[in-house]
Design brief:
Blueprint lengths: L10 H12 L5 H20 L40 H9 L10 H21 L8 H33 L6 H22 L4 H24 L1 H26 L5 H6 L6 H6 L9 H24 L9 H15 L4 H17 L1
Helix pairs in contact: 1-2, 2-11, 3-11, 4-8, 5-6, 5-7, 5-8, 7-8, 8-11, 12-13
The structure holds fe (ii) ion (2 copies).
One fe (ii) ion binds next to helix 8 and helix 11.
Amino acid sequence: MMPRTVMSLNPVVCRSLQTIRRLQVPPIAWQVQALQCNRRFSQVAKLAHKPTDVTPASTSATDNQSSGNDDIHYDDHSWRQQNHIWTTAEIADRIKSSSYKHQPVVASDYIMKGIMNMLYHSFNLITGYKHDNPSAGSIEWRLIILESFAGVPGFMGAAFRHFHSLRSLEHDQGMIFTLLEEAENERMHLLTCMEMFNASKATRALVVAAQMSMTPFLIAVYLVKPAAVHRFVGYLEETAVQTYSNIVAHVEKPGTDLHTAWAALDAPDIAVQYWQMPVGQRKWLDALKRMLADEAHHRDVNHTLASLPPDAKNPFIKEHMDDFSQAADRHALKRSSEARLKAALQAYNEEKK
Ligand SMILES: [Fe+2]
Ligand SMILES: [Fe+2]
């Protein structure tokens, strides 16, 4: 389902296999896994060079049913940054992708993966996270810290590209929007978590420490090699998908701490509205599944951006337009300005045909 279309090998995958062979890593299963995973991340990269008939996300009427409570939280979610509204089938597809891992290809990939692994294990230690039967308390502050930091790289990358476009007097090729949408999406994850949990003073201190320490690091790396930051974020998102998959599995499993604490909880209004959660899918568990799907998307986006030349066209623009179009359909009667913008987008598309 996503990334969409394009099934042939490309140079990124070939380089990956060549690197694996050079390193003489023998197990054939490992090589096959590398091929499959890197192919997934690089499929979308190919779209940057060849406009295609990318299939719009299929969204059923049931899946898009409005929460009926549309007038709250507009202050924290602009309709210009339209998030993807996941269908049930798309969520299932992203859950299935939770074991996908990008295999490092170039030296900076190995360095970023090494740093990510170190941070991941330190983070597990600090938050008291264990894979088997984690406690609700250990997950609560883990998610707050994770989501507060996850909103940093997209915004920073967007700022760099914005200033570069101003300096160079050239187009950005549409990447700024994708990165801003990612940052907005992560902040909505955080705000959703804050509706469910309380942040202690220690958690708030860690949030500040994570932002103060990691932001200068990311800025320094971005100045030297922007692709390395996207690769780093890709690896970060892999761990986020892994964490959310484990949480979802435990909430669904009777007898676990997370099932006892969370299985009966309703999703907060902010989540119901943001993801347009349909009636019958408005539990906290359903919100967690949507966060998992978002993280899987960030993983694919960042690995794709890491594999693209910096001046390549954004292969995700069509998805943004589809998301916007569907939102405009939902709100056309209430928000005439959205409908006018939708018409402008359609006119633009027609003109390009
Ligand atoms: Fe997130
Ligand atoms: Fe994410």
